[in-house]
Amino acid sequence: FQAVEELAPHLKDFTVIATKSTVPVGTSREIERRLRLLRPDADFAVCSNPEFLREGSAIYDFTHPDRVLVGCDEERAQELMERLYKPLTLRNAPVLFVSRESAELAKYTANAFLAMKISFINEIADLCEAVGADVQEVATAIGADGRIGNKFLHPGPGYGGSCFPKDVAALIRTAREARSPLSLVEQVQTVNTERKIAMAGRIERALGGPLAGKTVAVLGLAFKPDTDDVREAPSLTLIPMLQEQGAKVRGYDPHARENAEALLPGVVWCTSALEAAKQADVTVVVTEWNELRALDLDRLKASMRGNVLVDLRNVYLPAQARAAGFTYAGIGR
Fold first, then answer.
1. Rounded to the nearest 10 degrees, how much is the dihedral formed by the CA atoms of 142, 148, 234, 321?
2. Is 92 exposed, middle or buried (0-12, 13-18, 19+ CB in 10 A)?
3. What pTM value is reported for the model?
4. Which residue among 72, 128, 163, 270 is the active-site one?
5. Dihedral sign for Cα atoms in the order 321, 327, 330, 333
6. What does the pLDDT look like over 41-62, one tens digit per residue?
7. Residue 163 is among the residues annotated as catalytic for this protein
8. Structural domains of the chain sorted by starting position, each given as residue range(s) with its CATH number in brackets
9. Residue 42, by phi and psi: left (phi above 0), alpha (psi -120 to 50) or beta?
10. What tens digit of pLDDT does each residue of 157-192 get?
């Protein structure tokens, strides 16, 4: 709350203070309480105005929001916030006014729900492998249902980034402190942690033997494409596990190498996917960069010593990969 102390001396006339960050429930009221103590003479209101922006598309998300959420308990503050967002309402963006606690909790709830969809489809992918179904077909079928929607139904090595892991953990903590535990959300966190750990075993099974002495090309280090963010990325769990089992790892990412280098010692860093695959026994796709989607699989195969392609994002069609000479292993198919 250092910002509150820094802000207090500068309050004059009526002021609206809006928090944009994802904060624990009750933060807006605590800000107000502290400011009242510091400046009992000040005329102000505190609002919660959480952002719903994705890394890699923040500007578009801001100018084309699904909704603008404002937690506000003061009429003058609501009028000011309505004026502030008028340019977006002219483009039919709904501005929702709710209580401050509701706005704060809605942000955590939204991210936890999306994380739940990811963990759900990851477990369904495992079931698909066991019964001979195709998770892509299953996801398309259920995603066509308007009650479910087709977003966040893409199986993979688990979610990461700066938001989902942190917000899921924060929601679990908030619920426990309120003595209203969220067992479903707690399981989402557990499933995701175990998912990342399980990826090394998938690679070993695809190879048909131990990883010791093998060279593994890891394509993609960021937690998702179009960002250099590696926070909580699956690669940070996978690569050390491969190294612990005696594998040599060659890594490539179009943008995340600088952030990953300090966190992943012992990796041979490469400047292209084909360079990373040079003399590799197995190539593993961890992040679904468009650059990797467009990769010439014949050239990739020719660069390698082995012929195993582990596609943790289902970037390639199995038939296409096999036609290029690969022993292909995807997710849920």
1. 30
2. exposed
3. 0.91
4. 163
5. positive
6. 999 999 999 999 888 889 999 9
7. yes
8. 2-98 (3.40.50.720), 105-189 (1.10.1040.10), 198-329 (3.40.50.720)
9. beta
10. 999 998 999 999 999 999 999 999 999 999 999 999
